[in-house]
Amino acid sequence: MQVSDSSSRILAGLLEARTGQQLTMSRRWRIETALSSLLKERGIGTLDELITILVMGREPALSNMVVEALLNNETYFFRDRGPFDLLAKHALPQLRQSRERTKRISIWSAGCSTGQEAYSLAMLFASKPDLWTGWTVDILGTDVSTDVIDRARGGTYTQFEVQRGLGINEMVRWFEESGEGWRANEQLRRMVRFQVHNILEASPHPGQFDIILCRNVLLYFSAEKRLAAFDRLTRSLAEDGRLMLGAGETVIGSTSLLEADQEARGLYKFVEGGKPATNPVRTALGA
Q: Which residue among 88, 154, 267, 271 is least enclosed by CB atoms within 10 Å?
C-alpha cells in the first residue's frame, strides 16, 4: 500500500487539526501500519480511496477512527522508572509537608494513553500507607483518544501489558486476574479517574494541580501549539507545584514562567513571581 504525498498531507492536517499533534515527514512511515487494519475492516482498497471518502464527508465517524489510529499510544507501567523515583523522593515528600493541613493532593497525567502512568502514580501512594492514610489523593488521567480512555477506565490489561514495567510481586499485589486479563484492584481504581481532554483546551479540573505529568506529548506539537500547551499547563499548576516533561522535552523556548528544579532535575517549578493569572486565555484552537 503506497502513500502518496497528497494523502500524507491531508492525513497529517487532519491529525493536527483534531489533536494539535504533527505527523512530520520523519513519522509518516507510520501511516501505512496505523491504517492498514482500518482499511481492511471497512473494505477500503487504498489510502487514496480513504482520502476521497474523508474529503467528501460521506462518513463523519470515519475521520474519528482515522485520528484514533494515527495517535501514538505507546506507554507502560512505571515507564523509565527514574521519573517515578524522582517524584517519590523529592516532589511527594515536599507536598506531604506543604499540604499537611488539607491532606489533599491532586495530580494530572496529561496524555495518559491507556492509563498505565496514572495507575503507576496510584501505586506510589498505595505502597506507602503509613505516609498517606487519611489523605485524599486525586489522580486524573486525560487523553484526546476516546478509545484509550475507555480502556484506561476499565483498568484491565493483558498479561504482557501488566508485566511490561511491573515485576511479578507488583503484578500480584496490585492486579486481580479476570476473564479479560488483569484488572487494577479497587484501591488503585478509587484514586484514579479518566476523561477525554485535549491539552490545548481549558483545564480539565476546576482547581489546580500539585503535580502535572506531560511526558512525551509536546514532542509532536509545532512551536505555536507548544506555546499554547504551556499556557494551559502553567495556568493549571499550583504556585508551588511541579511539572514533569519527557526526557527529550524542555521548557526552554516555550515558556519563561518555569525553570528546572535545581534540587530535583527533571522537574520544573515556577520562577519567582512567575505564576500566571488563573483565567484561561484563548488560543489558536479556541478556549
A: 271
